[in-house]
What we know:
By secondary structure, this protein is mainly alpha-helical. The protein has one domain (64-368): Farnesyl Diphosphate Synthase (Orthogonal Bundle), CATH 1.10.600. It is built from 16 helices and 3 strands. The chain starts with 24 loop residues before the first strand and ends in a 10-residue tail after the last helix.
Amino acid sequence: MPNPSAFLxxxxxxxxxxxxxxxxxxxxxxxxxDLGCVPGPRTVRQPPLVFAQRPWADGSMPALYCPLAVRxxxxxxxxxxxxxxxxxxxxxxxxxxxxxxxxxxxGHLVTLAHPDVDDPDRLLLAGQMNAAWWAxxxxxADETDLGADPQLLASRLALAMSALDAPPPxxxxxxxxxxxxxxDPVLVSLTSARDHVAVHSTPSQLARVNLTSFQMxxxxxxxxxxxxxxxxxxxxxxxxxxxxxxxxxxxxxSDIVGxxxxxxxxxxxxxxxxxxxxxxxxxxxxxxxxxxxxxxxDELPDCNIVLLVAAExxxxxxxxxxxxxxxxxxxxxxxxxxxxxxxxxxxxxxHHFLWALGGWLGGGLEWHGTTNRYTTEE
Length: 378
């Protein structure tokens, strides 16, 4: 494994995102202003979406081509974050680690990632759902010190599916399932978050959230199998799985949070689906880049595009990260082209959704540069 010190010299984390303010616009995508599908005061007017070369980490790496963050509202983010912490405490999630959860700032993430919405309750549902997904990742898939075990992963995820999509009663067997779903805080978080999503979504949107979660968890099972076998994983194989385990899952909440709906037959239309998958994959490459140092220090590292490229090509982590940046930038440029192409479809809901995905990309990058989740110091 390459030496982590070869990657990203200099500071990361809090304070290093300020340099992004100096990024120069390289293009834009504006949502039509006659959008009439979003009711009430819970959304705000969408400015043009500006794609730019954005510095990240200490600024010494090649820039990430990404939309600028549309809104940075610390007060709103803190409000949502505190409500999210209250929810976690109430259901027993992250017991003994609640301060770490607070400092991670998922409330700030969703406020950055959904810049068209200023309703704290709708932002909270996004925070809860993302926190529940991340709790599954931490406690079931990744963090062995929190009880994650690749041998138990598949059976735990099977219960997670029932937590999101409860099967009908099955006599005393259903009683056993209900007892299990109520005894595990991770499963409780999934059910609670799902119930809040259901308040603001249509049945079709809720089913989309469920099915996208299940799709993501199939990839997690692949990672678990790879860790158990110890066999080398090719970067292309990981990326194929990662594209179905990306922030695509989080992005499917965008129209629910925004108070409108992209119809199912349009959401899953080939060109739209490709654009949404591209946005999700680009966002998760940002996650891999920011977490590479921490994961490289693990005795049994998680799969990560930077680490896999470095191992496969025998290069430094910095060189591998530069390749990941280039891949990210190619994908974002393709997404930007998709947005312009899809403007030809006469759907204000779709146009708003695509704008919201760009807002998610810009806000997600901002959050990764400010959260303490991916620093190496505990």
